[in-house]
Amino acid sequence: MPGPQPLRGRAHPHRGRRAQVVGGPVASVAITHPAHWHRPQTQVLERAAALVGLRPLRLVPEPAAAALHADEVGALGLPDGTAAVVLDLGAGSVDAAVVQRTGRTVSVLSSRSPTRSCSCAARWTWPRRT
Q: Cβ contacts of residue 125 below 8 Å, gap of 6+?
């Protein structure tokens, strides 16, 4: 599969703006991806992020990111040991996932869509803000 070779070796125009936008040095970057993606798809995302200098990188399944954000802003209580259903209402489909929190880790237990499915064991450990 041909990669984005024209960018290789060039500085990305937004590389210097990361610290300016977040108000300081960028310690890490989290990028979300659909829960049904497998390693080949996430590897392409990792390579693209590396080309524009996004390191260190965390890839987070979208349902886990949604549950963590909802918990963080107080819209969803997701205490340790509990599970929740996350619905992604897209323009042309509805994806549903069951996520479970164990300590600081959120696991996607299962994900379903009208056109794709997976039995995921994806886990992501949440670096709580201090």
A: 104, 105
Nearest to 69 by CA among 25, 93, 35, 101: 101
Q: Which residue has the higher pLDDT, 120 or 85?
A: 85
Give the residue from 102, 122, 101 showing the smallest Cα distance to 110: 122
Our count of domains for the chain comes to 1
pLDDT of 56 > 90? The answer is no
User: DSSP per residue over 25-72, as a string?
Assistant: ----EEEEE-TT--HHHHHHHHHHHHHTT--SEEEEEHHHHHHHHHHH
Determine the structural domain holding residue 110 and report its residue range. Answer: 5-125
Q: What's the pTM? A: 0.69
- Secondary structure percentages of the chain, helix, strand, coil, to 5: 25, 30, 45
pLDDT at 4: 47
Q: Is the pLDDT of residue 117 over 70?
A: no
